[in-house]
Every structure is written in structure tokens, then in C-alpha cells.
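Late entry, evening session. Most of the bench is empty. Finally got around to the prediction I had been postponing all week. Sequence below, unchanged from the version circulated by S.P.
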Amino acid sequence: MTERIQKSLRDTTWARWVALGLVSLTMFFAYYFVDVAAPLKGSLERYYGWSNQQFGWLGGSEFILNVMGFLILSGIILDKMGIRFTLRTSALAMFIGGGLKFYALGFIDRSLVVDIFGMEMPTTAFLSYVGFAIFGIGVEMAGITVSKTLVKWFKGKELALAMGLEMAIARLGVFAVFQLSPRFAGITEATPLGLEPGVKLAMTWAMAFIAIGALSFILYTFMDAKLDKQSGETLEVHPEDEFKFSDLGKILTNPGFLAIAGLCVLFYSAIFPFQKFAADMLSSKLDISMDVASSLFSWFPIGAMVLTPIIGYFLDKKGYGATLMFFGAVL
């Protein structure tokens, strides 16, 4: 009888997986939005007057503020304010940033130019950079908060499997965007020569997905609040979890942290820029249409999507985390 009284949502299998599903759905749509412009590169250059370099800057704008310290600030906010506040904040940042990018590509006069530090560029490009930078804060904030959320629900249970499934669902968003974005824009082999593809329509769908993702985060916060209430926790942040500036020194001098961070830097610097240009590269090199090239590249994350949950399940059952990380680095 006592066990039944003390049982919380965390101990209920279906509730854990519903919580995982809600936060994973948001990350699916966030990853979709991150690469929504990649299959549209040719259209942005042809109809919006962007240069190849300016398109590259769009990809970099997602990370610029995080590199300047906003991701560390996001971690501090998470430690100070808790999961629910940080999820709402990240959803708001993604919606505002995504909305600005949508406005830039859907409603701004394409003939307008702006001078930024002596560099002339289309206004559509500049506003897209600003919007994507704000979106980048939100999506990275969401990423670290989702990780802490999964620890909260799955610690001592199927934690590695849950993290693997969350990443697999997020990677599925990459598959989806390279399949759907060119189709939403009307970039197909049957598109008549000279007919302008609908970049605005593709962005409209992407923005609708972000709105659904924000709603999914908000729905999860009600589950989170109920879990805390059942656990008798009146504070979102426990005293032992509160941020201290001295913690930064401990983290930055931890050899294990530095090694893992270095691996992530090398991995992300190779993968993320490649994703932005891959479809256009395949289209040019293989002399195929952009929608076919995007469809081919969409299969790129499938291997990781399938293997990540399997590796997570193995970690839960057997361990060998350091060994698997080594083999992953070699691969």
C-alpha cells in the first residue's frame, strides 16, 4: 500500500514515454527548421539575390550568439530557474527568431539592400541572420534542457535509451526537411523553366511546425509541474543544483569534459556546414534537380537515427560508455 502511495508519474512507464514524446516532438520540428533553407539555396541565390557567401553566413548565424556566451547563459538560466521556465523561454526564442526569418523571406521587398560594416547585402539576408541567431539561442537552450528533462524522468531507468530515442527523433527532422522543403517550395523536376519556387510557402510550413513544437513544450510543462507536486517538491531548482561561478573553473579544468567538448567541436564543424551545402553540391556535381539531390541527402542521418537508440539500450544494459565513445570518434 505504501509503495502505491509513493508511486509518481516518473514510476509510470507510459508517463515517462509520453514526456519523452512531447519534448522529442519539439526537437524534431526544431531540427526541421534548422535546415529548412538548405534545399532552397538555389532559389535564394536566383530570386533573392543572395551570394554563395551570404548563404553560408546564414548557417553561421545560428551559432554566433551561442559562441559568444549565450549557450553558457542558457545553462545558468536552466540551473537558476529550472526546467519549465527554460523550456518556455527556449520555445519563445525559437518562435520569435523563426518568425523573423519567416518575415524576412516571405514579406520583405527583395530589392532592398542594407549596408552592414561596409558590406552591402540584401535586407532579406540580414534579417534572416538576425532571426536565425535568435532561433539558435532557443534551439540550443532547448537541447540542454531536454537532456536535463530526460535525466529527471529516466534516471535509474532507461536513461541512455531515452536519450538515444530523443536524438533519433530529432535526426528524423533532418530527413523530413530534405524530403519536404523542396516539395513545399515547388522545386521539382516538373517545375517549368523560369517559374519561381515558393520559398514563402516552404517557410510557412516550417513556421507552423515551430508553433506546434512550442505547444508541445508547453504541454510538457504541465506534466513536469505535476511530477514535482507528486514528489513534494515546491522548488523547481534544488539547492545542490544551483549555479555557482566556481563551477565554471571546475568544468573547464576537467580533462574528461575537455576531451568530449573537443570531439564535439570537430564533429559539428564538419557536419553542420556540410548539411547546408550538400544538396546544392549533389545537384551541381551529379547534374540532377535540387529535389532529387535533397531526397538523396535526406538519407544521410538515417544510420545515426537507427543506431543511436540501439547504442543507448546497450549502454543501459552493459555500460562501456568510454569504449563506445572511442569507437565513435574513430568512425
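Two things to note before I forget:
The beta strands are 113-116, 119-122.
The longest helix spans residues 123-154.
Will write this up properly tomorrow.
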